[in-house]
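Submission sheet (multi-component)
Chains listed below:
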Amino acid sequence: MTDTNLPIEQLAARAQPVRRLASPLHRTLLWVTLATVMIAMITSVYGLRSGLASQLSAAPALIEWIASVLTGLLAAYAVFQISVPGRSLAWMWLPLPALLLWLSGLGWGCMQDYARMGREAFLVELVSSECAVAITMTSIPLGLLMLVMVRHAGVVRPAPTAMLAALSAAALSAAGVSLYHSGESALMVLLWHLGAVVALSLACLAFGRPLFSWIGYAKR
Amino acid sequence: MATILSFPMPAPAMPQRSEQLVHNVPGRTPDPDDTWSALMVRAQDGDKVAYHALLNDITPYLRAIAGRYLGRGEDAEDAVQEILLVVHDIRHTYEPGRPFKPWLGTIATRRCIDLLRRRSRRIEHELLVDVEFDHMQDASPGPEEATTRLQEAQDVRDAVAELSPRQQEAVRLVHLQDMSLNEASVQSKQSVGSLKVACHRALKTLKHALGKGDDRHD
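Outcome: structure written.
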């Protein structure tokens, strides 16, 4: 009997029935529902910003908002795919087109602001940084909830899973913040909304392994 | 890693072949992926016999993957055991109907890469400790420390000089040159038994002599 036979005997003796993971689509729907409820609650506290409907009727703002929601949804689906062993890592590119569309919408918005306001369109307002704070504060619980839902990824693909989870949570949070925060130029949205999303995603890419280890599922 | 789990041994278990546990089409060689997949589905439902057969069946496959990353030896066997533990921990993530080998392969590859990373960190750490130790050795002692070291070295030389030539040779070969008793026996032309006795007596004498030295300094 080699050393490995003993653990096999012991593991086999512990084979209790397990509850299988639901499909990625089901888990995405569950998480998005929870995220929507949380963002709706925050929005109801602050109230929808005035002139939201007229602003969203303009093409760049509407495209930018829809693209941010799409980025969150597609990133969530990608998380529930790549966190399962055996699924292709290529799923991680799924939110990229929506992210590029979001970036294009913001670029288009910057051009329109410049045509309308001239050089003032490129003034950096530090007061708008409160959006980045709001996005971060909303993203942290949402992202943690998702990481707990895919904690098994700690032993499979911790870094890309954590990055996509942050991208999804932050993109949906940014879409939520756009509903109640007003008075920003497209450049400020680009800087503080997309900037926060990218910064959170990169931080989770760098610290994905310790994060999962903290959650308790990454073997070192 | 001799034993990972502190569980009591289960009842003598299950020497059944995996092919006997799943229904295959007669006349067709069963595909291991289909067999493993069927066994895993039953294991997820709590079938201990199927789970035991599955773990036994996949072990050579895991050993091959671990060997490719870590070479043959203790590290590879440790990796196999760790992979089996991970398989056990996240067996709920296998989705019935999907190929089993990619699921298992992802887990195995990931664990091997993590172990390789851990091994390289360990080697880096050991090298760092060696370098620091060399620096400590190189550091020039102050005059008082130098005098103490010279005195201690002289004490050791005096104590060794008190040993018989056979005892001196035994200590030099076994303790300083790290030879096994058999190698030292060939080299010194003494029997293994007399080498053991010589070493034991030499160490006892040295301990006694150097212990006395400490008393003298106090």
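Remark: Chain B is about 75% helix and 0% strand.
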